[in-house]
Amino acid sequence: MEFIGATILLVFLCPSAIGGRSGEDYVRPLPRETLSLPWRPVRSSDPQQVHISLAGINHMRITWITDNKSSPSIVKYGTSPGEYTSSSQGESTSYKYLFYNSGKIHHVVIGPLESNTTYFYQCGEQGPEFQLKTPPAEFPITFAVVGDLGQTGWTKSTLDHISQCKYDLHLLPGDLSYADYQQHLWDSFGTLVQPLASTRPWMVTEGNHEKESILFFESRFQAYNARWKMPYQESGSTSNLYYSFEVAGAHIIMLGSYTDYDENSEQYAWLKADLAKVDREKTPWLLVLLHAPWYNSNWAHQGEGEAMMASMESLLYAAGVDIFIAGHVHAYERMERVFNGRVDPCGPVHITIGDGGNREGLAQRFFKPKPEWSVFREASFGHGKLKIVNSTHAFWSWHRNDNDESVNSDEFWITSLSTSGCIVRKGWKILMSP
Ligand SMILES: *[C@@H]1O[C@H](CO)[C@@H](O)[C@H](O)[C@H]1NC(C)=O
Ligand SMILES: *[C@@H]1O[C@H](CO)[C@@H](O)[C@H](O)[C@H]1NC(C)=O
Ligand SMILES: *[C@@H]1O[C@H](CO)[C@@H](O)[C@H](O)[C@H]1NC(C)=O
Ligand SMILES: [Fe+2]
Predict the structure, then answer these.
(1) Average pLDDT value over all residues in the chain
(2) Strands (E), 207-309
(3) Can you say whether the dihedral through the CA atoms of 52, 239, 348, 419 is positive or negative?
(4) Looking at the chain, which residues constitute the CATH 3.60.21.10 domain(s)?
(5) Are the CB atoms for 385 and 332 separated by under 8 Å?
(6) pLDDT digits (tens, 9 = 90+) for 303-322
(7) Which residue, by CA, sits nearest to atom 6 of ligand 2?
């Protein structure tokens, strides 16, 4: 018995060495069914769908939903279980969609919090205790990265693998629930991710599946904005669809592929101002995430990111962005440093990681031959892990869901552009001047 237990444990350890079958002989698994999850809790007044996100320096936003409209938007917290030495009051919202009425959606910002510390908290003065760990103030810091999650058997497998790894923060470049207008699927998604999303901050940006427009009403992103409020106000943005945050020594920009991005848009003006504020001494790492990839050698979603790239690529290039992560294409692809369609040592490393496990299945057709800027590509479900080791070095790995096992299938070191000759101060200033 013990031996069997040990074997099972080994299988689930977050692997650190490249292993498993090579991409070529790997038999691609079929999509899995959407899980059928209870989306009403047993006791209807307990908090549900708890998730957390960073909300400015040393602060965290706690989000949850209650059926009880009188339930208070209060979080009590402290560093020992059951001993709540602090308390914060927040706000709440709700929305209607045809015949659906959402629960009361609570958003409470807590802090200031110590970094790299475990806090115990209770939502709405009722229900179970949750715990979270704040990210470290310095390197090393580890991010779990995965897009296009959905809520299928493969999503479950991906989330299980992530939960077995040590990481500080979850980055999600769009397409969360795949609710696609069925509002109760937003609730079941919230229930599915709660075990992870209540313990580590989830920083997300919107994908096309978050866009739910009803004819005649311009209420796109209604459910997404109500449920997944991100620190946009904290980062000087006027829209929940794009924002930035800083953690350890990284400045991370979450862009919106599904809102205006042309040179006269608010997003463009905000991006330019946000990039101008970046201090590479303080945050040597500069990352950008969004949904629709700009470089993509898969036949799926070809060209969908092109207009945004035409508008914004030179801004990111001038700022010396290190890593650019997208989702949307249901496969994994890692690119060279690229700019303007070519390999360029001063461009960002591009990565597409839209392989979280949604019901639409994998995007299996890649361009042949492989473009010079594409390094590694594979249509499999999985997740990525980015460990920023210090101000100059980061280690990226991609973990394939090999059936139900997590197999480390691609890995490489990235060095930050912050100390390279790429960020030519003069050129940067010219670009940034109004
Ligand atoms: C709803 O919440 C209020 C405030 O906490 C509480 O007094 C009331 O009993 C709750 N109602 C139900 C049905 O649980
Ligand atoms: C965070 O805390 C852990 C455990 O307490 C410690 O091992 C680690 O070095 C800390 N990390 C940082 C960056 O302070
Ligand atoms: C950063 O980490 C890399 C990889 O571990 C190491 O080679 C390098 O010396 C480190 N740099 C500093 C300044 O510590
Ligand atoms: Fe998508």
Answers:
(1) 90
(2) 243-247, 250-254, 285-289
(3) negative
(4) 2-16+137-432
(5) no
(6) 999 999 999 999 999 999 99
(7) 116
pLDDT of residue 6: 33
Here the tokens at position 16 are 């650190």
If you measure from the C-alpha of residue 143 to the centroid of ligand 2, how many angstroms do you get, rounded to a whole number? 15
Q: Are 143 and 260 in contact (CB under 8 A)?
A: no
Identify the three-state secondary structure at position 104: strand
Positions of CATH 2.60.40.380 in the chain: 48-133
pTM reported for the whole predicted model: 0.92
- The band of 431, judged by pLDDT with boundaries at 50, 70 and 90, is low
Whether 301 is catalytic is: yes
**Measured between alpha carbons, how far is 324 from 306 in angstroms, rounded to an integer?**
15
Note the pLDDT tens digit of each residue in 325-377.
999 999 999 999 999 999 999 999 999 999 999 999 999 999 999 999 999 99
Task: Please name the residue whose Cα sits nearest to atom 6 of ligand 3.
Answer: 393
Selected from 3.60.21.10, 3.40.50.300, 3.30.70.270, 3.75.10.10, the CATH number assigned to the domain covering 2-16+137-432 reads 3.60.21.10
Q: Does the pLDDT value for residue 429 go beyond 60?
A: no
* φ and ψ of 74, to 5 deg: -130, 135
Q: What's the fold here for domain 48-133?
A: Immunoglobulin-like (2.60.40)
Q: Which amino acid is at 334?
A: R
| 369 upstream amide cis, omega within 30 of 0 | yes
Q: Is the pLDDT of residue 293 over 70?
A: yes
Give residue 319's pLDDT.
Answer: 94
CA–CA gap between residue 189 and residue 196 (Å, rounded): 12
Could you tell me the CA-to-CA distances from 228 to 49, 54, 129, 243, 422 in Å, in that order? 11, 12, 21, 13, 36
Our separate counts of H helices and E strands in the chain read 7, 24
- 166 CA to centre of ligand 2 in angstroms: 12
DSSP 8-state class, residue 271: H
Rounded Cα distance between 175 and 379, Å, is: 17
> Which of 116, 138, 143, 200 to mutate for ligand 2's pocket (most ligand atoms within 8 Å of CB)?
116
Q: What angle do CA 316, 250, 424 make, to 5 degrees?
A: 40
Query: Tokens standing for 20?
Result: 């498993």
Any idea which of 69-78, 315-324, 367-376, 415-424 has the lowest mean pLDDT? 415-424
Q: What angle do CA 202, 288, 280 make, to 5 degrees?
A: 105
Structure token pair of residue 338: 């690229």
